[in-house]
Amino acid sequence: MKLIVIGCGRVGSTIAKRFAAEGWDVTAVDDNESALSRLGENWTGGFVRGHGMDNAVLREAGIEDADAVVVSTDGDNTNVVIGQVAQKRFGIECTVVRILDPARADFYRERGLRTICPTSTAIDALGDAVRSCEIPQSREGVTV
Amino acid sequence: MYVLIAGGGKAGANVMRTLLRNGHEATIIEQDRTRFERLEGEFEHQAMQGDATELFVLEKAGVKRPPDLVLALTGDDEDNMVIAQIAKEKYGVPKVIARVNDPRNQPHFDLLGISPTVCATSSILGLVEHEVPEHDLVHLLELRKENLEIVEVQIDKSSPCAGTTVEKLRLPEGARLISVMRDGKAEIAVGKTELKPGDQVLAVLQPGKEDELRQILLKK
Predict the structure, then answer these.
(1) Which of A13, A47, B102, B126 has a 20 to 30 Å separation from B194 between CA atoms?
(2) Is pLDDT above 90 for B139?
(3) CA distance B93 to B193
(4) What is the pLDDT of residues A123-135, one digit of tens each?
(5) B-chain residues within 8 Å CB-CB of A89?
(6) Which CATH topology does B2-118 take?
């Protein structure tokens, strides 16, 4: 299975490494050469230096026969556009896009883009963590 | 008319000024603090600071009314695409005009159905091409409202269409030949018109179809 990861920061590079370890054929794309170092010295997958908005860069990364695409650059709007290009121009059904802004993530999810919103996930996780705390009775009513 | 402008650079500020002078109602959104302060000095409460790709910022600027027209004129193409999509598809804004900063992004705007678009670089290049005679496809006129353009193509001996009649050409959808100029005389292009080397052909087409037209007429 072939995966293209666009935006090789903390999130993108970790996903790339994880899938490569599971035996996927992974190519990372980033317009910063130094992003390659995030993949580690033993990286045997592909790396294309260039901007994900550039169709030639996406083709060079092999998007035309990719099974899945992860879009995780540091710009929400850039991710939204690249995600739609991957889905609509290159027909990659499994295109997953990171969007930090919950409102935009919802809007594009309704329009058929697979969006992942780390902000919403964090909000839910923080809320759940608070609710799962065993708050001692004696603390109730204490004014700090 | 109520117009919402995203992006308060030179284009945005000048359009804003003209719209107000002509008696329209308008709001301009600018993210950058320094630029915003300058705009606020001139347009007062009609200028707003914020990221126009954020839904709550657009809503504060009145996108829910909705405006008759939204202009996505920021210096960032991805932002302009997102503003255009949100305005049109979420808030039902009847018309959105988007600025293309980098002509290489034009196919993305087209893919997402964002039209009309305006690209200063492309317009300048079009005019430059018009001045350079050896260019094979010259932009003569842009009909923005109609989203059409008129181009001129010079047919030569190596053109694959030379010796073919117009009806046999596999013209792309959204492109038609208007006229053929031969020996100083122009004729309206009809199905039976045969193209010959030396002809100057006028064509009307949707922007973005140039390459397909070039393939059929010139194949270079």
Answers:
(1) B126
(2) no
(3) 44
(4) 999 999 999 998 8
(5) 111
(6) Rossmann fold (3.40.50)
> Going by CATH, does the domain composed of B123-217 fall within 3.30.70.1450?
yes
pTM over 0.80: no
pLDDT tens for each residue of B17-44: 999 999 999 999 999 999 999 999 999 9
Q: Which CATH class is domain A2-117?
A: alpha beta
Rounded to a whole number of angstroms, the distance from the CA of A29 to the nearest CA of chain B is 18
Between CA B4 and CA B62 the distance in angstroms is 8
Q: Say what the pLDDT of residue A44 is.
A: 93
Q: Is B81 on the interface with A (CB under 8 A)?
A: yes
